[in-house]
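Narrative of activities, Objective 1.

The group set out to show that a structural description can be obtained from nothing but a protein's sequence at a throughput compatible with the screening campaign. Below is one input-output pair from the validation batch, recorded exactly as produced.
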Amino acid sequence: MQPLLHSPFLQALGYSIINSLWQFAFLWLLYYAINTIFKLSSHQKYTAGLVLEITGFTWFLITLVFYYNQTLLLPQNLQNTPIHLAGLFTNSATTFKQQFFLLILKTEQFFPYLSIAYLALLFILAVRWIYAFRFTQKVRVSGLNEIEDEWKNFVQKISAQLGIKKTVNIYLSKLV
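Output recorded for this entry:
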């Protein structure tokens, strides 16, 4: 388990997760400011939100690549550094600066665990999404019963009022 915890990818993912908190907070404030200043319509709010969400994901990926490259270079940089970091900080840090850096170093030790938890949660949510998608596809084609003609007429009338050109079908499902 020790080599896994020293994985550059897990360390970089931990940095990216922590940085994504302020990055997405900034993008949310930007969205709020844009919406307040320009009084966007529903479609414009959706578009702005989608653009900022894609921007946030791209920013997350750029941060991940940046920190991954930095963690790959870290062993080379430490060998070229005359002072080893472990000797700089002890548990008896006296100045605020030393205490602050000691806290940062201790916090960074949890990044691999944070990354593993993040990936596990991502996996669980992906499995749940796949299960829900498959169930939705099954509901669309299995266990369908015809419905009474008055309901079919009602649906056709409403779809015409809404301007829906495509034929709308209605069924009863045994699965739902």
